[in-house]
Protein: Ribosome maturation factor RimM
Amino acid sequence: MLSIARITKTRGLRGELQLFSLFNEPGRFEGLKHLHIGGVRFAVSRLRIADSQRLVVSLKGVDTIEQAEELVGQDACLPVDEIPRYEDEYFDFELQKLRVINDDGEELGSLTQIIHTGAKDVYEILSPGGKRWMIPANHEFIPEINLEEGYMLVRPIPGMMDEDAL
Structure:
C-alpha cells in the first residue's frame, strides 16, 4: 500500500472528506473506485478535483460528519499496482538501490538518494569506491531504467563523473 493523499478535513454535514494529494496532478485519480483508510477498504461513491492539490471524496458507509471526522488526519492508500501512472514514472522506493551501469555494462555504483528540486529530480550515485555523483533525472543522461533487472543506464557527458567532479 502507498499513501496517495492525507485526509485534511470534512466538507459539509453528509460525510464528504477533503484530501490533500501527495501526488502532482491529482486528476490522475478521477474515476477511482476505492480507497484504503486505516486498513479498511472504502468504496468511492463520488470524487471531484477541488484544485491542483485537493480532492473531495464521498465514501460509501461514511454518511455523517461524525463518521467523516473519525477519518481526518489519516492517509488514503492504494495498492501500488492500482495507482495510475504516467509513462516513465517511478516511485522513489522503486529506484532506491538500483545498480547504475553505463553503455558497456560497467557498474558505476548504486542510486542512494533522490533529490526533489521542484524543477527536475537529481539522483545521487554512490560508486563502489565511495565517490558520490549527482545526475539530472532526464532521458539525456538516463535513457533506461529497468526495475525488473534492477539497473539504471547512465550516459554521462564528459567530466560529469570524473573523480574531481564534486
User: Anything to note?
Assistant: The chain has two domains: 2-82, 92-153. Residues 65-69 form the longest helix (5 residues).
